[in-house]
Amino acid sequence: MFSKITLKHLLDKLLDDIFLKVISLVLAVFIWLYLKNLISTTYEFYLPLNYRGLSQDKVIVNQNELPNYILVKIKGNKEDVSKILNIPKNSIYAFVDLSVISPKSTYQVKLVLPEEIKRLEVSIFPEEIFIDLDMIVETNLPIVILNSDRYQTFPKEVRVKTLSRNVPKLSAIELLVDTNKSYDRIILEGDNFTVFYPQVIFVSNIGIR
User: Fold this and answer.
1) Distance CA 19, CA 146 (A)
2) What's the gap between Cα 127 and its chain centre?
3) Rg of the Cα trace of the chain?
């Protein structure tokens, strides 16, 4: 009997002036948020992004699409955040480690910070990056003239340096000659990842019957 009376008494006390208590709680939350904003701040800056550990036999295919900087946001007490301005620039840096190949081609951005910043709330954008890597390989390809069998080429084959993904699609260097000329020179044009040796091919039908 005593416990029931006590429980009812507590519930009555709790519900007494419930509206005022809710208002007080809401005001307390707003005051806490206001005071928190007064003493906290966010400092944003851009940091150069370095790419490390790439082996000599590999290249970054999407080099032109990669970011050169990341956005760093540091949030915390105003006094602590203000100390960032006095920290040597070389003590904060960001890099991507390419020494270990990622199966999904996504690499985490690693941020190096001094100890006095690690206790603050730090976020970066982007946190990871898609990087398309491939190997550079070399192979010899014969030269084939498509529109005439009365011409010879000098040399008869060229060496191609290109991405490994391109090799299965290559079987020969196919050329079209100007049949109005007995002698001509053709320049083989590559791209950022394809180079021909030699680049100039000579064609001639002189002496061919």
Assistant:
1) 91
2) 9
3) 35
